[in-house]
Structure formats: C-alpha cells, structure tokens
Amino acid sequence: MATGSTSGGPEPSRAGREAITRVVEAYDDWVIRTYSRARFLILRQRFLDEIGQYLPRSGDVLDLGCGFGLFSLYYAQILPGLRFHGVDLDARRISIAREAGRRLGLGNVEYVVGDARDFRAQTEYEGAYMLDIVHHVEPETVRPLLVELHARLVPGGCLLVKDVDTRPAYKRWFTHALDLLVSPGRPPHYWAAEALQAALEEVGFRVFRHSMVDFLPYPHVLYVCRKPGA
C-alpha cells in the first residue's frame, strides 16, 4: 500500500493534443462537443497521460462507464497496440461512441450496452479503468463490481480508478454541485480515499494511491490497482 500526491507527468505532447481535438470533432451534436471539451478540461491531457502510463502496451482494456467514448477514443489513438472495449448503460451514448470511432477510423475500439452495477465479463483483460464512475453507483454494488473486475483481469493486470475524495470539503461540495447539475436524478456517493483503497485491497488488489493536484477545485484521486501474478 502506498499513498502520495503528484502534479502530473511529462509535458503533454502535440500528438496528444491533436488526438483530443480529433475526438471532439468526431461528434456532430454541438452539445456533446461542448460536454466533451468540458470533460477534457477536467480530465485533460496531462491527467490522461498520467493515467495512461499504467495501461499495458498490448492486449485488451476495459473502459467501464465509457459514456460517449471520449477517453477510449483518445487512448485508442495514442496506444494503437491496445484493443478498447467500452461499456455503458446508456444505449444512445454507445451509439454515438460507435459512430465517433467509425469517423476516426479506429479499428481497435468497440462499444456495448451494459450496466456496471451487474457487470459480468465474457473475457479476460490486460487492463481496465473507471474514470469518475464509482461515486455514481450505489455503494452496495461497488464491492461485487470490484470482485468481478479482479476476477477478469489477467495475473499482473492493472485496474485504474480515478474518483473523488471526500476531503477537502470545499472541493467535494464543488464537485457535488456539478454532479447534481449533470445528473440531477442520481445523487453521488463519494468515498473517502482510505475507504475505497481498503475496498480495493480487500478483493485482492495491490494498491498505490495518489492525489492528482489540479488548479481546478476537484479532489482527484488515482488508484493504481495491480492484480498479483506474472
């Protein structure tokens, strides 16, 4: 177990900036483009590259709660040796993600409709990630989900979880207000960083946790979860 904080990795590359621009432009709807720009502002390239350094360089990666496919479409360009499998509850978002992947000419992304709360994989993955998903599902469904993800990762596989800490309080309330604005019918449940790390370790992951320091008032925390093995 380890904890810490970081302000990010190397300077964002030109290729990464261009990949983000291509993703945004792959959507027809100006509302989705505006949403995409906002999401890439919150989880901008520096953070995506910080997360991406822990992804494998070949094999299958699960994007659970993929939404419109923003991040898998980004990583599919930056890491072409990976095959990304996006899952989301919203059929409309999945349809839009598929069309965006087609427009980008990406053969290493696929999207299916599915619910994280009763997720059951049909294959094994070298890697998986959930970006701002845990606080949007009911707390009692989180541990069964983590058990399933642990079971479906190959030995040595990595699960990456980016979520929101409960501290400091002013950052949590800022995030809470935005979450309610985007999803007014689904109040979020934020986990204290220590509690979520404990839940990840209880199902068998080795966890390194660190804060992601930002100029925006978000209490970002990244959990790098490794399944013991080869």
Main sheet record? 8 strands, mixed
Instruction: Report the CATH C-level class.
Output: Alpha Beta
Classify the fold: give the CATH topology: Rossmann fold
Number of helices: 8
What order do the helices and strands follow? EHHHEHEHEEHEHHEE
Notes on the structure:
The longest helix is centred in the middle third of the chain and has 14 residues, at about 140-150. The protein has a single domain (about 1-225), classed as Vaccinia Virus protein VP39 (Rossmann fold), CATH 3.40.50. Strand 5 (about 125-130), helix 6 (about 140-150) and strand 6 form a beta-alpha-beta unit. It is globular and about 40 Å long. With about 230 residues, the chain is an alpha/beta fold. The chain contains eight helices and eight strands. About 35% of the residues are buried. An eight-stranded mixed sheet has the order 1-7-8-6-5-2-3-4, with helices on both faces.
